């Protein structure tokens, strides 16, 4: 049951009391509401403060996240910097190791594989391709190896007595018997015979000596009737390469000593001083510059004929040159271009930079195969010539990149690569004396399958190596130029390497270690001319002094254009006329002329004004002067070739034994 309702007030006082009570309750409720409102305001304010704090914390969090991201980026950058520095440090350490090896280690790049038969991951040679097995195992030689010189065989057993050449001049020194040495009972006896007995011989040295040549011309004087005037008729004075104190022999000797023997001018100055003549080194330098200018037509002819070769080889070397006023030297270059056996000339050209304009100018008229390294100046020739020039890669340059890595840190990959190179080079040595056609057939049968196998191995390694692996650069050097490296398979006349041109530039490399730099551009151009002649003499084993002396004596008579009145002059139709002095020259008709000695002169592409110089070409000159050939050079090359063949034969035999033992 609900509580009974409070009774309503019945009186005025009760009503007033009820109203007062209600007002009191209302006041209390209003006070409570006010307190609740105040509390609500406090909570709202606290909530606002918390919201502001939350926003502040959010901003701090965002800033901290940004700071963390920045620090992470900094760490990544620092790690990249550390990696780069580590890479630079490794490269510097590798370069330092290579430098120490160059300075103090062995210079040969020969690779001796200690594993021999286990080179290709324990696969026997019988399981490899037939070409690899034929190139690796010991088989009968495809061409007969030349007999080893007796001197080389004897030298391995000990010293042998050297025979003094009969071509040397000989002086007899006779020791006469004195009366004291003859027994008294034999003095004046009729049955005693006197004769000379040879008891020995020895070599003697006579230092070079200077002499003065006084020139005279025979003159005929004819007086007139009253003897008041005389008419003189004098013999023609023989022309000289240029007027001055230096004769042909002195010029040839200085050129030989400086450019073939690599003696600097100050040593030549001292040598002349010991002979009694003081000639300043500056004068010697100017003589060589002038000599280079006078001999330049001959070297221009050699360059023209070299570019008629089907295959040429090229390389370059930097040489410092003095630059007055700059306080430092500039880097110039000598470029060597070698012709084929039909044009056996080693020519040099001088440029003040290594820009591609140099090769573009040298080979502007060349059409054939160019064997060189991967210098961009050579590689652009193939595109700019529209296919007229084809590039052939040098396997020695490619092998050197693997060999350097193997020398610093031998690995299975570098050993395998060097093994492939060894199997490419060894047969080439056996095929050295074959004809081009026979060598081409051997390459098709053995080198081509081996090269295909090598390419497959390179591609496999390239797919597994990390992007910055050191071996990757060596592999890509070949794979990006594979067409050039396959070029030697097209003809037996294309060499597998460019070693010949590298050996040619050593003439200048050895020289600059002594005379250090060129003095001017004219000196560099003269050096290119004289290095062309001396290096070609070295290639053909010609005694350089004899050749240069004869050239200096004969050149003025063969080619004298617009020098002095009455000398040879070239007519407008290009035919050479005979001078009043009686100088014999040949006229060129339809591209052919007959020069002294029965040599057919004007080959295709030789200008008429250079045709008289054809007898002075080193190979033709040697045919007329066979006594000027140096036998020492030929014997030395034969001995070295026989030694290389014997060592490679021993390696092939060891490889065959290792495979037989495993099988």
Write down how many β-strands occur, each being a DSSP E stretch of 2 or more residues: 10
Structural class by helix and strand composition: alpha/beta
Report the radius of gyration as a whole number of Å: 45 Å
Uncertain ranges: 116-157, 561-601
Helicity range: 40-55%
Shape descriptor reads elongated
- Main pleated sheet: 6 strands, mixed
Span from first to last CA?
119 Å
Q: Averaging pLDDT over every residue, what do you get? A: 82
Write a structural description.
- This protein has 663 residues and is α/β, with parallel strands linked by helices.
- Among the domains are: 248-553, no CATH class; 558-630, no CATH class.
- 51% of the residues lie in helices and 8% in strands.
- The protein is built from 18 helices and ten strands.
- Strands 3, 4, 5, 6, 7 and 8 form a six-stranded mixed beta sheet that branches. Strands 1-2 form a two-stranded antiparallel sheet.
- Helix 5 crosses helix 6 (281-306) and helix 6 (281-306) packs across helix 15.
- The chain is elongated and about 205 Å long.
Properties at a glance:
single chain; 663 residues; alpha/beta; 6-stranded mixed β-sheet; two-stranded antiparallel sheet; 18 helices; 51% helix; 8% strand
Please write out the topology.
Blueprint (H helix, E strand, L loop, with lengths): L11 H93 L25 H7 L13 H8 L61 E5 L6 E5 L13 H13 L4 H10 L6 H26 L4 E13 L4 E11 L7 E6 L5 H6 L5 E4 L4 H9 L4 E4 L2 H14 L3 H19 L5 H29 L5 H10 L2 H4 L13 H17 L1 E2 L2 H19 L4 H15 L35 E2 L3 E2 L17 H7 L6 H32 L1
Parallel strand pairs: 3-6, 3-8, 6-7
Antiparallel strand pairs: 1-2, 3-4, 4-5, 9-10
